[in-house]
Write a structure and sequence with these properties.
The protein has 166 residues and is of the alpha+beta class. The protein is built from four helices and eight strands, in the order ββααβββαβαββ.
Length: 166
Amino acid sequence: MLDTSRLLLRPPHASDAEAFFTFLGDAEAMRFTHHHTSLRECRRRLAAFEWKRRQQGYAPWAIVRKDDQQLVGWGGLYEDPFAPGWGVELGYSVHPAAWGQGYGTELACACMAWADAALKLPEVRAFAHPENTVSQRVLTRAGFMAVRFIPKMNRLLFTRVPARNL
């Protein structure tokens, strides 16, 4: 678990699946990325990422607001079990009711501090849809730089290396 000034980042519980599905299954809210088409799919993907956490020690967290214990998102560091080969990535999805409150940036910065200090990761990557300027700003604030456009994914590839590696 990690915590920030406003957020608790904890492993998801099986009982969180329905709360996750309210936004991860919302095609409009997830229009720039994958959305779950069923609660079953949501549970399956959460379980796959938790399996990766047991193997590697990291996977996306449930993002919980400290002041009211409300689950507001899902995100963190991971190696994608459904699209392998990109190395360690940062990804996040925030419930639409929590958009515009800086939770994505707070998560991203906490993840990068943890990636540097505890995990000693040499590089972290992230993807953002070209029209998702909000996500691009979050990544830039967390120290990422756009590297190139990946046409077959219709995504911009971002990368971040720790300052000690520059």
